[in-house]
Amino acid sequence: GVVLKPKTPAEAVLPFLQEVELVLVMTVEPGFGGQSFMEDMMPKLAWLRQRCRPGTVLQVDGGINRKTIAAAAAAGADCFVVGSAVFGREDYGAEITALRELARAAV
């Protein structure tokens, strides 16, 4: 797999898209949890979804919660890294279920 930080253009992975099984798009600057989701990464996700070969996992990491997961799913993400949104809740299972439902409804 390959990872794209927010400032790395999507085109940077173009030479590798036929070789990788996973592309991770960071929607925050890597380093610490609890950062705000960067909505301006959604065009990058959509661009990648259009160019990835079938079966490639498009993962998103950073600021994913009930307010942001639908936008990421609609842009093409099919795998979500969630930290604070789940671990800040009393019932992890209920939060994961809610997030899954929101992601499914967006596509």
Description:
The chain is an alpha/beta fold. The protein has 4 helices and 4 strands, in the order ββαβαβαα. It has a 4-stranded parallel sheet with strand order 1-2-3-4, with helices on one face. The longest helix has 15 residues, at 92-106.
Question: How are the SSEs ordered, and which strands pair?
Answer:
Elements: E1 2-4, E2 22-26, H1 42-51, E3 57-61, H2 69-75, E4 79-81, H3 84-87, H4 92-106
Parallel strand pairs: 1-2, 2-3, 3-4
Tell me roughly what share of residues is in helical segments.
25-40%
Give the DSSP E fraction (strand runs of 2 or more residues): 5-15%
Major sheet size, sense and barrel closure: 4 strands, parallel
Based on Cα principal axes, name the global outline. Answer: globular
Which structural class is indicated by helix and strand composition? alpha/beta
Strand order of the largest sheet: 1-2-3-4
If you compute it from the alpha carbons, what radius of gyration comes out, rounded to the nearest whole angstrom? 13 Å
Order of helices and strands: EEHEHEHH
Q: Averaged pLDDT, please?
A: 94
Short summary:
This protein is α/β, with parallel strands linked by helices and 107 residues long. The chain contains 4 helices and 4 strands, in the order ββαβαβαα.
